[in-house]
Write a structure and sequence with these properties.
single chain; mainly alpha; 4 helices; 2 strands; 3% strand
Length: 190
Amino acid sequence: MDVDGGGSTSSRFGTAIHITALDGIVNVNSLFTLAVFIGLAWSPTDPNNSLVTDPTCVAGPSIAENLVCFHVYSFSSFLFSSLVALSLKQAIRISKTTSCEPRRVLMFTFDMCHINKNVLRTGYLVSAVGSVCGCGFLMMALVNVAQIKLGVLGCESGSAHVYGAVVPLLTFVPLGLLTYVFFVLFAFTR
């Protein structure tokens, strides 16, 4: 496969790195998708799930609706990201094993022996954007879980517990996502 256009051994080594990176994206997305399914299996409207004692701090139905919506958005983003990564991985593998003749599908002609470096980079970037969006939506779903379990944000009687759960979540997840975005953009420019 000629990822870089040169056909040297470094591009063949780069292919193994690309496939490993795509495997990593798919594996992480799969773990997060499992977390989304576990979250969707939980019934937020069950009064036994809440630890709130003050009736004024109980989360309303809109927070439960947001919880489900954010889980669905998260699942959609992770699925999108995984499908893009799997498509790129399949394109790399096909290009390594096929002969270098163009293939005609319907009215389009595809050259399966060469993967354009810019297309590969763009695919990585699109897959990374899907993963970042999925993590953001999952984080918002977890904020809603904390509000359902511990009380709504801004409630005076139990706000310390809610903020104790939400502040680390809203601090560490964005920091991790910024680190991920930095390295994806670094790899994108190389």
